[in-house]
Design goal:
By secondary structure, this protein is an alpha/beta fold. The protein contains six helices and seven strands, in the order ββαβαβαβαβααβ. It has a seven-stranded mixed beta sheet, sandwiched between helices. Helix 2 packs parallel to helix 3 (112-127). 40% of the residues are buried. The model is unreliable at 1-21 and 26-44 (pLDDT under 50). Keywords: Phosphoprotein, Two-component regulatory system. The modification 4-aspartylphosphate is found at residue 104.
Length: 203
């Protein structure tokens, strides 16, 4: 299977030792063990909503291509990974350059639930003295198989919201507006019986 990790404008290359740690990722590293954590805070800086750096975990090449192209139309920079392990590895390598993660649930090697736990573990490790991570990255379930009855499972795992497939791109644009704007996030919180619309989980 061809490698799917790529930046919007060029393929990612091997790591350059001189590259600053907050610049976009060059290649994934091996993820450590994980545990669930929800103790870190959301981003609070005011980066423009039109220039988010979004890490995507999606094993289907067609879905990846469509998602990348549509997010680029919103002005975002997109990094694609093909499974949960690769996604968590890339995040650990360059955590501070990502504004949000879109995570499929059913993927080979490592699934989306496990990958999200791995990301939250890396943030928790940073919080107790390892390589600093500046923020708790918002992670959205991006899957056709997510269900309202499993909402608490997603929250406990470390997800911040969800969007159903096939992705409604105007809706995902509305949700991404809430990455840095609390009032917009609050206007798209979970409502019972409205699962198909996607939204943010209340914390």
């Amino acid at each position: 299977m061809p490698t799917m990790l790529q930046q919007t404008s060029r393929s990612l290359t091997a790591p350059n030792p001189s590259t600053h740690k907050d610049q976009p990722p060059k290649s994934p590293t091996r993820p450590d063990t994980f545990r669930t954590t929800r103790s870190l805070s959301y981003p609070t800086d005011k980066r423009s909503k039109t220039n988010l750096h979004i890490l995507v975990a999606e094993d289907d090449p067609t879905n990846s291509t469509i998602l990348r192209k549509r997010l680029e139309m919103f002005g975002h920079t997109v990094y694609l990974t093909r499974d949960g392990k690769e996604c968590a590895s890339v995040y650990r390598e360059k955590a501070n350059c990502f504004d949000a993660v879109l995570m499929d649930l059913q993927m080979p090697v490592v699934d989306g639930l496990t990958a999200t736990k791995m990301i939250r573990e890396s943030e928790q490790s940073s919080a107790i003295g390892q390589t600093p991570i500046k923020k708790r990255v918002p992670i959205l379930v991006t899957s056709s198989s997510s269900t309202e009855r499993d909402r608490q499972v997603y929250i406990d795992t470390g997800f911040d919201g969800w969007i159903m497939k096939p992705v409604g791109f105007h809706r995902i644009g509305d949700l991404l507006d809430g990455v840095y704007q609390n009032e917009l996030r609050s206007s798209h919180l979970y409502k019972p019986g409205m699962w198909d619309e996607g939204g943010w989980f209340e914390r």
